[in-house]
Amino acid sequence: MTGRKVVLEAIAEPGYHFVNWSGEPIWDGEPTTIENPIEIQVTNALDITAHFASDSNEFISEDKIVSITTPDGATALDGGGKPLTDVNFTVAEGVPDLPEGVGIIGLPYQLGPGGATFEPPVILTWNYDPADIPDGVREEDLVIAYYDEYTSGWQDLESIVNAETNTITAPVDHFTTFAVTATLPPAPAAFIIDPESLSISPAEISAGDSVTIGLLVTNAGGQAGSHTITLKINGEIEATEEINLSADVSKTVIFTTSQNEAGTYSIDINGLSGSFTVKEEASPPPALSGEWNWWHAGGIIAAAAAAIAIPLVYRWRQKNRSRVTPPA
Q1: Looking at the structure, do residues 144 and 63 belong to the same domain, yes or no?
Q2: Which of 29, 67, 252, 290 is paired with 102 by a 20 to 30 Å CA distance?
Q3: Is the domain of 134 the same as that of 245?
């Protein structure tokens, strides 16, 4: 057949249409042609391919979540510059980190083939599940974002949200990793009590003296909030204090109490436990009643005085008798 002219005609299967020819030889300096049928001069071995595309201008993922719609008249080419005949939808794994405070709603998808281009852009449609939207995020604030390999960052697309159909649409001019994202609200207030901060001073007191109980409370959440601190002694509520803290702020809470009876007292502050002791007082010597005490003491003193005086008087009388001369 060398040197002869042949006519080639591409016949599409139902649901597809012819797009162009590619391969050797090059017609009029162009690597492809859209003529069908074509007449070529056979001069040597030929390698010619006919390209077809689906009559539908929409490509849908198997799970029906993501779809690509090609506008009429748009040029859609794969990475090799050939007409795009299929789109790959794959759930992306190992997604690069998003900006702080931004989260992915649902699952991210990798679209392919890589290197595909569109002119004008095709329309990416995403069906989202409202149940996946975190509290505090409005549906109208959802956006479709793509990962830009050149800047190593995520870029938001001009997205349109339809809350009635739960869909988001955005124009795309190339394939990469896409995801529905939203700016997440700050985490709610979350109060943490440092167990190492609990202090009871002094641990032993006398009846009626004061004991000071302190602890450190921190709001580890992302929003301001309030929290009630309750002091219980022997299971009974002794005192409460409500504190208001901004995010990432700490405060030392101090209670002062006293007890009049000796014993060990258990304390509980929002689950933290400890104890202090009221010590026994030393007993004073027994006091004697007023009247009996004086008479008793007087009797003792009188007896002691008599014990001393009687011998003295006796000796004095004996001495005086020895000095008197008896009559003749």
Answers
A1: yes
A2: 67
A3: no
Q: Is residue 306 part of a domain?
A: no
State yes or no: pLDDT of 325 exceeds 90. Answer: no
Which pLDDT tens digit goes with each residue over 307-319? 555 555 455 455 5
How would you classify residue 115: left for phi > 0, otherwise alpha for psi between -120 and 50, otherwise beta?
A: left
Residues of the domain holding 16: 1-55
Q: What is the pLDDT of residues 59-116, one digit of tens each?
A: 999 999 999 998 877 888 888 888 888 899 999 988 999 999 999 999 999 999 999 9
* pTM greater than the 0.70 cutoff: no
Residues 168 and 202 both lie in one domain = no
For residue 319, is it within any domain?
no
The residue from 121, 149, 183 where one domain ends is: 183
As a three-state string, the secondary structure of the chain is: CCCCEEEECCCCCCCEEEEEEEEEEEECCEEEECCCCEEEECCCCCEEEEEEEECCCEEECCCCCEEEECCCCCEEECCCCCECCCCEEEECCCCCCCCCCEEEEEEEEEEECCCCEEEEEEEEEEECCHHHCCCCCCHHHCEEEEEECCCCEEEECCCEEECCCCEEEEEEEECCEEEEEEECCCCCCCEEECHHHCEEECCEECCCCEEEEEEEEEECCCCCEEEEEEEEECCEEEEEEEEEECCCEEEEEEEEEECCCCEEEEEEECCEEEEEEECCCCCCCCCCCHHHHHHHHHHHHHHHHHHHHHHHHHHHHHHHHHHCCCCC
> What is the domain-level CATH number for residue 265?
2.60.40.10
Amino acid at residue number 245: L
Claim to verify: residue 39 and residue 82 sit in the same structural domain: no
State the Cα–Cα distance between residues 295 and 292, nearest whole angstrom. Answer: 5
